[in-house]
Amino acid sequence: VQAAAGQRNKSAASYHFGSREGLLEAVLTSRMAVVGERRVELLAQARTTRDLVDALVRPVAEHARSPAGSHWARFLHQCSSDPSVAAVVRRSVEGESYRETRRRLIEKLGRLPRPLRARRVDLAFTVAVASLAAVEAGRRVPVEAEVDDLVDVCTAIVLTRPSPATLRSLAG
């Protein structure tokens, strides 16, 4: 960060951001603002479960495709996987548009047992970010068909009926 900013002062990042977590939060919040704006647009038109999953996934995929989004999905995936910054990620990534999309999705999943609803939505988002990170790691951006298929896969995650074994586990 110091070299990229053309700084010779080794404590410049600490001065401006306070800590590693402060720097990560600034990057995440800045990037998620664009994602959140796009999510609001999609959410306004969302009627079906797939539409809601699309509003959850597509803005992150589109940002990963933009020139400004270089390495974005990998960065988001790595931060999400690091327990030491998990709270920072939640504060930054889970803005109002994310929370509203998640809430509406959970509401749509009323036929699923309550303990599975939020878990399924969170799992779908995690799969989406990991998938986009893998595409970036291959030094390319996701094409539209991949994004559409990713939305289909994530929709399947939230809509799949629980197996009898899962239902027994929940009851037991």
Summarize the structure in short.
74% of the residues lie in helices and 0% in strands. It has helices at 12-17, 20-45, 49-65, 72-81, 86-93, 96-108, 114-137, 144-159, 164-171.
Please give the count of helices.
9
How many E-type strands?
A: 0
Note the gap between the termini: 51 Å
The shape, in one word, is: globular
- Low-pLDDT segments, ≥5 res: none
Instruction: State which percent range the strand residues make up.
Output: under 5%
SSE order, one letter for each helix or strand: HHHHHHHHH
What is the residue-mean pLDDT, rounded to a whole number? 87
Helix percent reads: over 70%
Our Rg estimate from Cα atoms comes to 18 Å
Given the helix and strand composition, which structural class is it? Answer: mainly alpha
The biggest beta sheet is recorded as: none
